[in-house]
């Protein structure tokens, strides 16, 4: 089977967008970067994200958390207060590379100790690159509990985007369960495992409709009635005719891969994961958990009508109604029902459609190109396995179990007992049949780390395989912390150097922080290990990570200076620092 | 109104018990105290405590946690591993005074930092006194989540109890909700407050029956069918005729005060909270959360029958079916239904009955007597209040909010900013009307501490009052850590020295660690502040403590040596120790 990385664009651009994409030359100006301060309190609260009340993890009484809006070059300072009663908390700034501030990456057990109940931690980091980002919890399944929000970085003062628009909207997509996250976690860790099932609702900006539909006239759900003040009232996109809008989209879903469309409106993709891409036009687009995009669309349709904006589940037999909101042409009332049904999504398992979208994404000319050669290639086999009656996901037969001491501290201070041996560089590519359930389904748990030599170019081949169930292989969106990577290509079946090496795209591969592997396929990534720190690389499906689907990269940790000690006040690093004290207090291991 | 402390015993003892209570003189022998080691893992698991499945916090896969059985003088060593994903954990050893080991008291924010997920802590403490104890979580509402178990200390080798018996049973009583504890917590912290309501079930040794009754023939619930292997199958008490048994009873309820009875069998109370009491006979007994007792009973009834053992809710209009198990005379089948109905409980609000029981408890002759005089008397007014829309319980108008840094560390290391100013010593006894809702319902939150001078005798007067609702005053069982106290007396209305001082019982007051205040009443306690450490004193009703109903006593903390630093690896103590380190790592506050 052919791989899908051919660098061509199958999609025609509408003329109105083409005009907007003309290069814009901006004179360099001095821009004064700012520090933007936020004081946040995290706590649980009752909320009705989909009109059914449950408990969400909110920030300052809001769900989703407050949107951070900054300009490239700014420093974000978030003083995060943990107001939970028994749980730690951290926040990961998804897509921000944390250049020089690896302790601010917000990954419990990796970049820092979880913030204790009643305590606080100050995240201070620079947002160096304009783009559409988001943030979310990164301890246990706190993202699934609703701990997320948007982070939008505009170009610096005096700079311009390489496209223009008249207005913009932001849609943060997520999925929602009525079962509490703690119970979901217990189920995933039980023997036999109890799967969380499909979400009850899809949310747009934290708003969904469980028992009714905005498009009731086209389906068999009852009609939603909103005053607009309900927590689950949809966020209406109010537009004027004949304008161009930027729609920022990010997916913080726990599980669902989504397909988004605006009825009768083409979208031009211009940004992916905070990187400009070669613009291309689509009628619908796939968005995997961890992805972010900007698209432009022009309100060139009949302005007397309103139109549905829809998000549907992809890649899993959908049991969840589509999320809907309204593209509301002024001066129509927002409540005016669209005359046309919501956009039709491609069949959930139409992977050819998904692959066509994914393989249409290329770097915008002028983007950094990848090094031509790699120093090291790590092949990561993704398998579903069993361990002592539990169901696990494993990478090269190791299911990631995070240690009590954050790697950033244990590696910096050479506490080698804080984690386990280094994992395997590859799997048995000759013997392993990726099209069948594993012959030996047993895996082991481990907390080993891939040590990357600072400054080297690393290739990662993500190799998908069959799950424990015959004829099933799932989609996994892999997200890398601390870096963008170039997506060199996607392919079917087993990756083989001889066959596939030459086809990798070294010309204009897109820079991303998240890339999907398709069922039974492989994905080839390249990045430069140039950011001293310790970085998670994992499937962004929350229960999959919880079940061990991730690895950890460490690079140049000896070069990391000035780690705030409050980031290391737990586990073996705490014991080490405290044992250096010679007051009359003892340390026990 | 007269107070109820008159030192006389209204209850006649059955002859069979009297014989057993003859003093027993035991020659002193050398007994080899042992260290008993346990390795425990705390994790959530699915369980059906009352035949309805929910999530419980278990230890080593068991609910309730394993019973610790030791001998007086032994050292208990529990290596506690936190296998929760996001929550800290601690375990308090209820009734163990922790003489010389205040860091092992297992109170988060008071005696230690919560143990982080993935980490562990070693509790090492001596059980110096035989008795019936239990252990439970002391962070958030983890006790309500099921984190509890029994701790039974036998007399040392060569020693004998001052009574004898042919066999023994242990009943650990608790209450159970179908709503998860996290959601309960969110409700209690919401504005307006959402009360947890009455428990769905009462449990005996973690076993209850929600939708059926062992006494179905006497009520309108359906009949329970058990093979005996179900998680909710009752623990049958199998007895032989004409023997005497010791029944150990402890209550770890979150909310419910209970009344326990064995149909047609009198019980002789011989121990309360790990202290021998003057034996007295009862047909039923009240057990408040935090209490423990031993009673003796003789199987002197018709041996061809089985009998019900029942526990019912006291002091709140009961909405919860009684807990039942069977006193099963051998060789009857356990499944043989008792011919007599379960014991009738007194009316839930028959406080006279409750007071008669409570005021029948006196120290066994030879028990330590209280000092005749006190150095300091602290009067604690118990009120229900409001704060920023929240409902709180407050003591002298301060609702306890625990700090991020354990007091044991912050006081030891003089980190005075770690908590707030000292609270009030008394309330405005002239002006405050305890029979009415508070005139000013507003309270403040605080983390202040009562500093007790080491070695002094401290009196505490617990003063009950009306709640926010007219004509309502509730029962509160107050539990003191680190000490036993003498219960000098109970009274009605407002405590007034002139009127009540002389009536306090200094002759044979019982030593307890838990004492109740009755609605609109007061309770007078005395203890010697002779145990260096920081000690919680609080209402043992879990949601009440969660809503601030407690105070903190600190005594002789300068004398505490050798605090394990792992007990202090959080908050300001962690920052202090880590800042003393001069490696290239910075500390941020």
UniProtKB/TrEMBL annotation, chains A, B:
Gene Ontology biological process terms from the UniProt entry: negative regulation of defense response to virus; response to hydrogen peroxide; response to virus
A GO molecular function held by the record: copper ion binding
Keyword Electron transport: no
Keyword Oxidoreductase carried by entry: yes
Gene Ontology cellular component annotations, sorted alphabetically: extracellular region; plasmodesma
Compartment(s) of residence: Secreted
InterPro entries attached to this UniProt entry: Cu-oxidase-like_N, Cu-oxidase_2nd, Cu-oxidase_C, Cu-oxidase_fam, Cu_oxidase_CS, Cu_oxidase_Cu_BS, Cupredoxin, CuRO_1_AAO
EC assignment: 1.10.3.3
Annotated ranges, domain Plastocyanin-like: 42-154, 169-331, 435-556
Reactions catalysed, as given in the entry: 4 L-ascorbate + O2 = 4 monodehydro-L-ascorbate radical + 2 H2O
Entry-linked PROSITE patterns: MULTICOPPER_OXIDASE1, MULTICOPPER_OXIDASE2
Cofactor: Cu cation
The protein's assembly and partners: Dimer.
Family: Belongs to the multicopper oxidase family.
Name this polypeptide is given: L-ascorbate oxidase
Native species: Kalanchoe fedtschenkoi (Lavender scallops)
Lineage: Eukaryota, Viridiplantae, Streptophyta, Embryophyta, Tracheophyta
């Amino acid at each position: 089977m052919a791989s899908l990385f051919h660098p061509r664009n199958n999609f025609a651009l509408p003329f109105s967008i083409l005009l907007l994409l003309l290069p814009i030359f901006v004179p360099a100006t001095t821009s004064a970067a700012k520090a933007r301060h936020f004081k946040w309190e995290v706590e649980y609260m009752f909320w009705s994200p989909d009109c059914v009340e449950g408990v969400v993890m909110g920030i300052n009484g809001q769900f989703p958390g407050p949107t951070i809006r900054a300009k490239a070059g700014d420093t974000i300072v978030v003083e995060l207060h943990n107001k939970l009663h028994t749980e730690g908390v951290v926040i990961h700034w998804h897509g921000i590379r944390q250049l020089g501030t690896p302790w601010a990456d917000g990954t419990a057990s990796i970049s820092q100790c979880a913030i204790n109940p009643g305590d606080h931690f100050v995240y201070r980091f620079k947002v160096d690159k304009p783009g559409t980002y988001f943030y979310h919890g990164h301890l246990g399944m706190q993202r699934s509990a609703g701990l997320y929000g948007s982070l939008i970085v505009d170009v610096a003062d005096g700079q311009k985007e390489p496209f223009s628009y008249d207005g913009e909207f932001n849609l943060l997509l997520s999925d929602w369960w009525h079962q509490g996250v703690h119970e979901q976690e217990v189920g995933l860790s039980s023997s036999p495992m109890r799967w969380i099932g499909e979400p009850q609702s899809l949310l747009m900006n934290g708003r969904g409709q469980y028992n009714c539909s905005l498009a009731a006239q086209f389906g068999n759900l009852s009609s939603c009635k909103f005053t607009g003040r309900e927590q689950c009232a949809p966020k209406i996109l109010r537009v004027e005719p004949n304008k161009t809008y930027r729609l920022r989209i990010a997916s913080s879903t726990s599980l669902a891969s989504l397909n988004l469309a605006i009825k009768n409106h083409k979208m031009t993709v211009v940004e992916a994961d905070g990187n400009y891409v070669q613009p291309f036009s689509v009628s619908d687009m796939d968005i995997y958990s961890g992805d972010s995009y900007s698209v432009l669309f022009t309100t060139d349709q009949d302005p007397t009508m309103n139109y549905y904006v829809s998000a549907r589940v992809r890649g899993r037999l959908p049991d969840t109604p589509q999320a809907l909101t309204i593209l509301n042409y002024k001066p129509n009332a927002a409540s005016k029902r669209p005359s046309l049904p919501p956009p039709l999504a491609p069949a959930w398992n139409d992977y050819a459609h998904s692959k066509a979208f994914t393989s249409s994404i290329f770097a915008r000319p002028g983007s950094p190109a990848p090094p031509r050669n790699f120093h090291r290639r790590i092949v990561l086999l993704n398998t579903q396995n069993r361990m002592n009656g539990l169901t696990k996901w494993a990478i090269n037969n190791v299911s990631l179990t995070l240690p009590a001491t954050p790697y950033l501290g244990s590696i910096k201070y050479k506490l080698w007992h804080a984690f386990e041996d280094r994992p395997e560089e590859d799997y048995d590519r000759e013997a392993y049949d990726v099209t069948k359930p594993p012959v030996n389904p047993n895996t082991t748990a481990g907390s080993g780390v891939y040590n990357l030599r600072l400054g080297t170019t690393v290739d990662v081949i993500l190799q998908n395989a069959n799950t424990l169930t015959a004829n099933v292989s799932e989609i996994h969106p892999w997200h890398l912390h601390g870096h963008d990577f170039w997506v060199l290509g996607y392919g079917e079946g087993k990756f083989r150097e001889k066959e596939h090496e030459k086809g990798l795209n070294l010309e204009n591969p897109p820079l991303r922080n998240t890339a999907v592997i398709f069922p039974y396929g492989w994905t080839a990534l390249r990045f430069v290990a140039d950011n001293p720190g310790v970085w998670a690389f994992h499937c962004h499906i929350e229960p999959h990570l919880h079940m061990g689907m991730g690895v950890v990269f460490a690079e140049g940790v000896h070069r990391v200076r000035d780690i705030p000690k409050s980031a290391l006040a737990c586990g073996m690093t705490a014991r080490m620092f405290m044992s250096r004290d010679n007051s009359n207090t003892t340390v026990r291991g």
